């Protein structure tokens, strides 16, 4: 059967944008048919040209805004559209936050069937720029010239980038300088197609609170021409550099870092803290990307956990143990579980740095380890889960409901799986009290939420 669609490629339509999809693209209906148009703002009536028609929807390119929208702003970054790293720079920050909250509300209602849940306004940043503490810039060669920048959205073409407004200015400077020095000292750029040349990536990590900086040169082999001079000149220009590392990656791969690190200068790690907890950060360490908002997020978790010092708590999907350690002072026993062994190794180091002896970390799949803990008689008062986008496994949720913690705090980077899992938990006797979204990644579509559930 042929379905009649009201639009065809090349057609120019006028229609209203009523919402935003999870990838940040504006969406609305034209004669009942869904049409997506990037770089639009809900509330706008736009003129757009249809560029693609699919079975259930069409995609259009914006030509004009018919009703000027007060929440539309000029994107601050000149390569906003090519880069794809940010999706919302054309929308005022205030509206970005409102849209993120709406995403959470809509998902809870549509997927979870929750109506009238208390979803607080999103906790945003005072200054929603320059927040990333880790920057990874690919180096390449284009028309015989060294380029450093970002991959064009959905490709491996490098777009030249002078600065990125969501990462610190010093990181931009460091990348520019490394590129300059490499050019002057014969450290050739890596050619991905031929698998030749030396410098593949520059990674810069900064301790936002400590101002310490680590620079990592990812090279295609051990050789680094004019190494001494390179180190000397970089060191002279960057007094805040604490650590300079060469990482060797000779594989044909999209994975940025290779396994081997060589310390070129300074310390093998830098430090930063979240709240009063101190962390060592190496090139391979996981660490929260926006530490300022991480503190806001963890403070919310602390509030919901309402610890008195007596509680046993579990941090599932604990990464390098950041939530567990943040709460450790207020608890009598802390358990953390995480699937990546290197993360648990870091978690144990971080527990030690901070002098905690009542924190136990274990490597494994949370959905396997938690049921075993239940069998062994671990009965936590508070459980925190912070799963990846796909959410929690039912086996894990069953283990939690078997443990019967009074409070369950669900930290989520995907409101759709949050809604699905909370619906299941509600059926098992947990009540969704409230949700506090936190903006971890301003200018992008990412939305993080903290949900509090209590045992009925
Ligand atoms: N709570 C941490 C990290 C959360 S990110 C923080 O705030 O920094 C989610 C983590 O879940 C990642 O570290 C990922 O490696 C881990 N993970 C993914 N699947 C898992 C599983 N099945 N069991 C345990 N951990 C898992």
TrEMBL record:
Coiled coil: none annotated. Keywords: 4Fe-4S, Iron, Iron-sulfur, Metal-binding, Methyltransferase, S-adenosyl-L-methionine, Transferase. InterPro entries: MeTrfase_TrmA_AS (IPR030390), MeTrfase_TrmA_CS (IPR030391), NA-bd_OB-fold (IPR012340), SAM-dependent_MTases_sf (IPR029063), TRAM_dom (IPR002792), U5_MeTrfase_fam (IPR010280). The lineage of its organism: Bacteria, Bacillati, Bacillota, Bacilli, Bacillales. S-adenosyl-L-methionine binds at residues 288, 317, 338, 386. Belongs to the class I-like SAM-binding methyltransferase superfamily. RNA M5U methyltransferase family. Pfam families: TRAM, tRNA_U5-meth_tr. GO terms for molecular function: 4 iron, 4 sulfur cluster binding; rRNA (uridine-C5-)-methyltransferase activity. GO terms for biological process: rRNA base methylation. The keyword Coiled coil does not apply. The keyword Transit peptide does not apply. NCBIfam families: rumA (TIGR00479). It comes from the Bacteria. The active site is at 413 (nucleophile), 413. It comes from Thermoflavimicrobium daqui. This is 23S rRNA (Uracil(1939)-C(5))-methyltransferase RlmD. Residues 6-64 form the TRAM domain.
């Amino acid at each position: 059967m042929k379905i009649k669609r009201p639009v065809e490629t090349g057609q120019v339509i006028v229609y209203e944008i009523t919402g935003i999809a999870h990838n940040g693209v504006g969406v609305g209906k034209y004669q009942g048919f869904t049409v997506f148009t990037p770089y639009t703002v809900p509330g706008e009536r736009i003129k757009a040209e249809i560029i693609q028609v699919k079975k259930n929807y069409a995609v259009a390119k914006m030509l004009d805004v018919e009703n000027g929208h007060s929440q539309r702003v000029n994107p601050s970054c000149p390569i906003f559209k090519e880069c794809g790293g940010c999706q919302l720079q054309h929308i005022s920050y205030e509206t970005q936050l409102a849209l993120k909250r709406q995403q959470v509300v809509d998902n809870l209602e549509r997927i979870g069937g929750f109506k009238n849940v208390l979803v607080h306004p999103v906790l945003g940043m005072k200054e929603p720029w320059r927040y990333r503490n880790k920057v990874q810039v690919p180096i390449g060669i284009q028309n015989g010239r060294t380029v450093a920048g970002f991959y064009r959205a959905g490709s491996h073409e490098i777009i030249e980038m002078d600065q990125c407004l969501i990462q610190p200015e010093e990181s931009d400077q460091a990348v520019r300088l490394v590129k300059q020095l490499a050019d002057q000292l014969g450290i050739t750029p890596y050619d991905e197609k031929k698998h030749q040349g030396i410098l593949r990536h520059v990674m810069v990590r900064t301790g936002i609170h400590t101002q310490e900086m680590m620079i990592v040169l990812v090279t295609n082999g051990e050789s680094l021409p004019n190494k001494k001079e390179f180190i000397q000149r970089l060191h002279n220009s960057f007094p805040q550099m604490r650590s300079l590392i060469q990482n060797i990656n000779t594989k044909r791969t999209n994975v940025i870092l290779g396994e081997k690190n060589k310390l070129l200068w300074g310390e093998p790690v830098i430090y930063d803290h979240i709240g009063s907890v101190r962390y060592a950060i190496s090139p391979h360490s996981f660490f929260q990307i926006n530490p300022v908002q991480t503190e806001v997020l963890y403070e919310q978790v602390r509030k919901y956990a309402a610890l008195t010092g007596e509680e046993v708590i579990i941090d599932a999907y604990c990464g390098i143990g950041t939530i567990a350690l943040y709460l450790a002072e207020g608890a009598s026993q802390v358990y953390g579980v995480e699937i990546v062994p290197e993360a648990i190794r870091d978690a144990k180091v971080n527990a030690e740095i901070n002098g905690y002896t009542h924190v136990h970390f274990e490597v494994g799949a949370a959905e396997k380890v938690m049921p075993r803990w239940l069998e062994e008689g671990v009965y936590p008062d508070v459980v925190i889960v912070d799963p990846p986008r796909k959410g929690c496994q039912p086996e894990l949720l069953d283990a939690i409901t078997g443990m019967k913690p009074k409070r369950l705090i669900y930290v989520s980077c995907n409101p759709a799986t949050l809604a699905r899992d909370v619906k299941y938990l509600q059926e098992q006797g947990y009540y969704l009290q409230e949700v506090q979204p936190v903006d971890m990644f301003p200018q992008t579509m990412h939305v993080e939420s903290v949900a509090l559930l209590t045992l009925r």
